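Researcher: Let's run the pair from yesterday's discussion. Sequence first, then tokens, for each.
Model: Starting with the first of the pair.
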Amino acid sequence: MGSRRPAFLLDVREVFEHQLVCLEGDVLIPLGELIAGSRSWIRRRDRCLLPPREPERRATAYLRHNGFPYARNLRGGIEAWAARVDPSLPRY
């Protein structure tokens, strides 16, 4: 069996969006901060999962270009999570 590390959820929305709704255990680094260099704590072998909205697509492309080949977008993002998994989450 491999020693595959669990994925973590990276949220690149703005702080005010994160305050509206977030998922337990997610890590908030707004896109501007991520691109400015706040990614140093992410190990290159970690699997980053990001919701598939435009800022997240940009963040995924940025991470992949900078040596994080396992960065992925989550299908449907937090909206799909709220609809399918946890309907108690606010939607905006």
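Model: Moving on to the second of the pair.
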Amino acid sequence: MSEIVQSERHGAVALLRLNRPEALNALSDEVLEALCAALDAAEQSGDVRCVVVCGAGRAFAAGADVAGLRELSADEVLSGARGGRWARLRSSRLPVIAAVHGWCLGGGCELALTCDIVLAAENARFGLPETGLGLIPGAGGTQRLPRIAGRSLALEVILAGRSLTAREALLAGICSRVVAPEALEREALALAQRIAQRPALAVRLAREAVRLAFEAPLEAGLADERRLFAEAFASGDAREGMDAFVERRTPVWSRGE
């Protein structure tokens, strides 16, 4: 695997580290390709249950690699491989946690917003400054940020180039927790390990149900939730979990879904 994305195993957790610190982990095509390959490897391993994405050096990711981006044509931007790589990252079958420190801008912010959970270090800064380059966010920022933080704040970030501190991001719902920079990776791994210890089917179905909350009207979402609940209820893990609760013992989960 390319060294521009380093992969570490921590039990059932895969930690993927963006490793272009000299470029503040700018998301070049090579970085996106390597990140997709690392995610593929984690999913295909059979025993990884959760993924953490973080950045080396002083930033999580400070945006797209503008030098490389400016060489693309409009047709390549619209239908080229770069869009397919972003689609791959959005389709992860595993829960993904973003551990964000330092600059998290442009494509880096969109990568964090793509993840299921975001933990932020106190020094994190979130932003979508693309309009300052005559562009707009193109990897989900105009769609995800308003859904999470609301229309007004999203437009201030996108139109005026406002960056958000970690505490502002917490208040806006962009991250779930703010921690000391030196504790960020440890806290992200601990959270990932707690998720990895839970039954895989229940985790997958719960992720799907929450995703549908952002994509469907309320009544349709409630119907989907009931369908997914019934699927979970019919599983062996659900029976084991309920039996263990009643019998006051620790449940023994199945290894697969």
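Researcher: Give me one sentence on the second I can quote.
Model: The first helix runs from residue 29 to 44.
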